[in-house]
Amino acid sequence: MSFRSEKHGKYILRPAVYSDNDDIREIFESGSFAGGLNVQFLRGPEPLASFAADGDHAYIIAAEDTEKGKVIAIGGAVVQTLFLDGTPAECAYLTGLKVHHDYRGKLAFIPRAYGIIGKTVSGCAATYTTILDGNQGVIRMLEKRRKNMPEYRCIGHYTTFCLGRGKSVIPVETDNLTGFDRIVAQYFSGKALAPCSTEYKGFGSKRFYCLRDSSGDIEACCFIGDQSASKYYRMCSYGGIYRAVSHLPTALFGYPAFPASGEIIKNGIITFLYVRDNDHKLCSAFLRSAAYASGFPMLLWGGEENDPLCCAVGKMRTVRYGSRLYEVLWDGAADTLINGVVGMEAALL
To answer: What is the rounded (10 degree) CA torsion for 259, 262, 268, 273?
Structure first.
């Protein structure tokens, strides 16, 4: 990262380095998602490697408390090669500012950190990020225009769906990618922020599942991967109606089984989901069968509200959580660059 360390009182802003991993892991473990499903999102013992796995480059800024010799906040961007207006382009995903629980509301140098990140990703065609619906305080703070801060322009809503194990409804083929390159060129290239490559490590150790017609052409397909080497979730606790539902045998009714409090969630991640003509019934039959074949007790897939497959998956029995999707505009830029149906993958968020 091309900037020098900066002193702000007892804090230093500097590029994160490998030796910061333990402190960064502690930052992640000090927080959790808000709401009825209280979940921790964790990036394992080497968070910096986890960030790097999600793109071509990761630029992570660390804020160090010099009196304690400890990193207490991190933020940055992951640069990815994504489709934008039908062509590959370097885009930056803002990872969001993560602050250790003990320091929340106490840091005054956040605008300067954003300034550094903005310069770092200035060569990217577009910058985007997501914020969970439940983080209303963060949403209010970032949507309000402030001096020396970029504009967070909401361009849509993104839903992450949690699917159960499923059952074999139709036979699915495994690990035969014949014809998938045509699907990428004809289908995924038309979606803004869809990855140009299937080979980012952040997709996890994955297998390809597909259904073919009598001519051998792909009717439906996806990858299902295990991301646990770089990121995973821990169920902390349940609130509201989920407290009661979590004790029910939900898997018997086609919903995901609820893990016990404190348990690491074993899930697969669905990427590059394609269903011919966005057929709802075909989508359901294919995903249920692929989920069963994968062996994962729970699968995750995310879709933007204008994606027809979001509606198709939404008709299945799922647990879901929502996020706001933002284009981040720097230095007073006025034009929205991310247009049309968005195809970003939950695996890389």
So the answer is: 80
